[in-house]
Amino acid sequence: MVLNNIEELLERYENGETTLHEEQQLKDYFSQETVAPHLEVYKPMFAYFLQNQQEAYAKDLPLKPNRTFNYRWISAAAVVLIMLGIYLNQKPSKCEENLVGTFCEPQEAFNEVSKSLAMISNHFNKGVSTVNYLEEVNKGTGTLNYLNEIENSTRIIFKTNQ
């Protein structure tokens, strides 16, 4: 009768329908020396639960957190404020020459753009010159087209449709 009750409790335990009292009955049963042979697989699991239930955390937990003031944040904020003050105090020049990539005179800008475009064109031409061999490939395909025309004419002559 006890074995049937344990098997029923195990089935309810696996479905998550047991109470704490019923789970304690299962733990007590599996902590015994003699357990039914077909239920031996559950014994290590319930032994682990009993052992885990007896473990306790032994260290003291502080109730008040340690409040230490971190002075690194103050120094970082001071550096940011100083840099911001220096940046905002600078007076921009009439032409804003201090900016990278800007020119006061339109002729200077035109000359720089012309140099840049000439450099790009030079590199592009070098790249195109290495692809000239493709023209030879085009010539070869042109000869293949002549062969296709010869093949078409021989089909017409011999009236073969392949």
Question: What can you see in these coordinates?
Answer:
- By secondary structure, the protein is mostly helical.
- 65% of the residues lie in helices and 0% in strands.
- It contains 6 helices and no strands.
- It has helices at 2-14, 20-30, 43-54, 71-89, 106-129, 133-158.
- Helix 1 (2-14) packs across helix 2 (20-30).
- The radius of gyration is 45 Å and the shape is flat.
- The model has no long low-confidence stretch (mean pLDDT 80).
Query: First CA to last CA: what distance?
Result: 89 Å
Count the beta strands: 0
Contiguous low-pLDDT stretches (5 residues minimum) are none
Average pLDDT rating: 80
- DSSP helix count? 6
The class by helix and strand makeup works out as: mainly alpha
Strand content: under 5%
Radius of gyration: 45 Å
Topology:
Elements (H helix, E strand, L loop, with lengths): L1 H13 L5 H11 L12 H12 L16 H19 L16 H24 L3 H26 L4
Helix pairs in contact: 1-2
